[in-house]
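Before the break, one more example. Copy the sequence into your notebook; we will annotate it together after we see the structure.
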Amino acid sequence: MPGVGIPPFEEVLPPIIMRNYGKWVGHEFVKAGVYKHVSKGGEECYTVRVGMPTNARVSTSTLYKICDLADEYSEGYFRVTTRNHVEFVGVEKEKISELITKLNELGLPVGGTGRRFHQTTCCTGWLHCQLAAADSPSIAKAISDALYGEFVADDEVYPAKLKISVSGCINQCGEGSTSNIGVVGVYREPPVINEEKVKACERPTTIRVCPTAAIRPKGKYSIEINPERCIYCAYCTMTCEALTMRPETAGVAIVVGGKAGNTGAGPAWAKMVIPYIPNNPPQWPEVVTAVKNIIDTWVEDARRDERIGDWIARIGWEKFFEKTGLPSTIKHVDGLMGGVRNVRSNVRFHW
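Here is what the structure looks like once it is written out:
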């Protein structure tokens, strides 16, 4: 039926993309935030990449201004990438500088291409989600502020592209564990049970929703939680209001070596290297310092085009902890339930 579902893709592609669909032969990065694709017929397509506020949250008026710039410079089209960049596709070469100036006047930086810092991604965090152990948008903002120079740098400053993501909890809506560096919100204790309210909960649903079977019936109306099985994901708190997490036990963990793309060695699941850093908003100095330490060590030691996971795979985890100065403890042993299944779930599946 017309108007129902996703429209045919050819209806929403910029005209320059449709003219050269399936005919692209290569691309190059012209400068920070600007790259060029060339088709078999010789037509050049210039794209301008823009950094957005964390979680891509902008006001309606700002969005209208972005749309106006798209009408003026890219035939009325722009796209939003998986990392929440806004890209103006098909900008005329002579008008690129003019567009960048107008974007900067809106407070929007142009950059994040090639071997530079790409935009952070994050979930909604405390703005909306009741599961969040940390405020992912403000953490992403603090990290982005610290690495702003590497986003807009004239020269490529890293051995390879750098992607950082922030998830407010271990449910990974922010994709922290599939980025080169991830910040993941964590709790350190199981939920607290209110014995009066728990009588009103639907026990079968509450028990079934636990991913590790840590919840079981207790008596006629109550439940109990096995602390040895609980992974503190807080998911049960969404089904039963009698279960609450203790905010004083919340903080973040740092994971490294993840990758969502299928290039090179393929997708990878990150490994935890710092199990806990206390929440310290709004600047999150401990988190920013830890992230910069890992980046600086990677930049100093990695080879060209070696992303963080590839660098660690070459030198080994023992050397990674030694070079970064991070302590290695028993908590770094990977005991994730279903870990083998997750590692094998990509297009390079093999046993």
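The chain has three domains: 9-105, 121-187+249-344, 192-244. The two ends are 44 Å apart (CA to CA). Try to locate both features in your own notes.
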